[in-house]
Design brief:
Strand content: 15-25%
Largest sheet: 7 strands, mixed
CATH class of the largest domain: Alpha Beta
CATH topology of the largest domain: Rossmann fold
Shape: flat
CATH superfamily of the largest domain: NAD(P)-binding Rossmann-like Domain
Radius of gyration: 31 Å
Length: 709
Amino acid sequence: MTPASGRRWLRPRERPLTETFNALFAPASVAVVGASDNPNKVGGRPVHYMRTFGYTGEVFPVNPARDTIQGYRAYPDLGAIGKTPDAVVIAVSGDATLEQVRQCGAAGVKAAVIMASGFAETGTAGRERQQELVSVANASGMRLVGPNAQGTANFASGAVLNFSTMFMEVAPKDGPIAIISQSGAASVMPYALLRQAGYGVRYLVATGNDADLDACAMAAAVAEDPEVRLILVYLESISDPAQLARAADVARARGASIVAIKAGNSRRGAQAAASHTGALVGNDAAIDAFLARHGIWRAGDIGELVRAVPLYLQGRAPGQGRTVVMSHSGAVGVMAADLAEQQALPLTDLQPATLRELGTILPEFGTASNPLDMTAALLGKGDMFPRVLHALAADPQADMVMVGIPVAGPGYDVEALARDAAAFSGHYGKPLVASAPQQTVREVFARHGVPAFVTEADAIAALAQYAAHHQLNAVALTSPRLEPCPLDGRGMQDEARSLSLLAEAGVPVVPYRFCASVDEAVTAFSALGGVPVVVKGCAAAVPHKSEHGLVHLRLTDAAGVAHAAQDCFDKLQRLGVASPRVVVATMVKGRHEFALGVSIDPVFGPLVMIGEGGTLLELRKDIVTLLAPFSADDVKAACARLRLAPLFEGYRDIPALDLEALASAAVALGNWALRHRTALKSVDINPLMVMAAGEGVSAVDAVVELQGA
């Protein structure tokens, strides 16, 4: 059953919520409270749009000052209608909104769109008024979109409960795209770009303050529509990660994609977001990790949000993203190669057989490699282009193709070029895009279904995004449901307890002993094999030991251990530690110092940080972040993004580092943090000594902090 017929389509997995979404997207009747006869007013636009865009249900304008509104009978209040509408648009002032919500709830309305502003986006008092709206609505089983919402729209059913001016200027058309946004402007900007490019949009939802039904829930709702292939999302906060994850899972299961902008990440952007939609800005590293974890591509701006749309809608498999660049201009090839490297888009190394065949097709002064230069000979040899494409089709490492057409005119058979490009892409299922500064050229390619871009930069960026997103989707996982486990203790743990907890988690730790006296320290030295040891003062209240002279290194005899232990006991007592202890641990020398850490994001859960360790960690900031749970392969892929990544393969006289052991330790730490996410606050392992490949890793210093004082 399709929304175009006006019939209900959402699956009854959650009956009450399903009814709510059906009431918004395919309602049998809609009331507009505060309706206006003027289609250019907020209360007039939904009425005008439903009449204009083919809505076949009943429309009930509510306005006590008029008998008819835009050709519909008007009613003085909701009760005068004589029946309960499925959905209500409330287009009155903020002060009058609460009473209308009460009336809707009492009448049994399923869903209402609140357009008034003056709520959470204004501060604490507004947030309290907003919460009252939600409480009153939910008490009767009604759900709200907004307040401060531009509204919802289903252009397949004509149910446009939305006041945007954009639809006056840019006529809607049904299509396989949904746009979900907290912001009204950020919903219609991509809409305008898509419509002007000829693409249809089925759903457009601007949720405003996300007080009740938020953008995440709306994304999950439209993901259920089997005809939606691409969901574009604009967020200033992620208030319901579970619903957004569900949207991604549902979409991915049927081959649809989600591309999202999460704005408000800079300091000033965060301030603007708070005043705009009342958003609470999350940890940006957590947001990155969460979106990647669920196969959602994070776009940086509106241009990137819509740039690769034609590739998503075609749905051709990009393989490993290995790309061939071809043009009749050497300069285009050079620039495209530079751009591909900047975008981390791999240009394929063509197979010898492919190169030999190309050599028989191209003129002697052409370039049978990648980038491939067909030269101006393309003008006089009409069969060159399809023959080149045929040669590339046989190459197993040519996954995608970018065709640059910097100039065309008399002598260039653009129609044939576009037709051949489309035939190649369609027959072999390989993504192919073109770039051309001339609009007339782009129009011909677009008419044949070939994505066409103004510049090489846009074409390369679109391919890179599409291929990388495809790979992201391939490794996205469904979040496991794990019950949290408690941990004994509260607050900062001393080093001995911290190392003990990490060992239980499966993270390799340095051999050590926890000692309450000098004699115990000397005994520990012998028990550890008499090898060089370190003696450290151990107290939860003194986490930064080096600053207080509480670290003694490279001790090789019992006398030295005894002296170091006594020094630590004395200093800890002077620092006010009631029961001083020392740790005696084996000296471990790794090939490189790393840091491994955990922070618990209140919204997304445990984040595991991996990066270069030592005292310059915060200065160098060479780190990557993963959202637990994750796999060893995820760790390896993340570590490849570190500036020190070449060390994992070996560098000059430095042997390759043990990436396998590092990945294993990170996975163990992430799984442990996930199990104990309600009890854990943070973990700081610095340094984690990473040995040569095959020799393992070892945590030599750690601080675990639990919740509570």
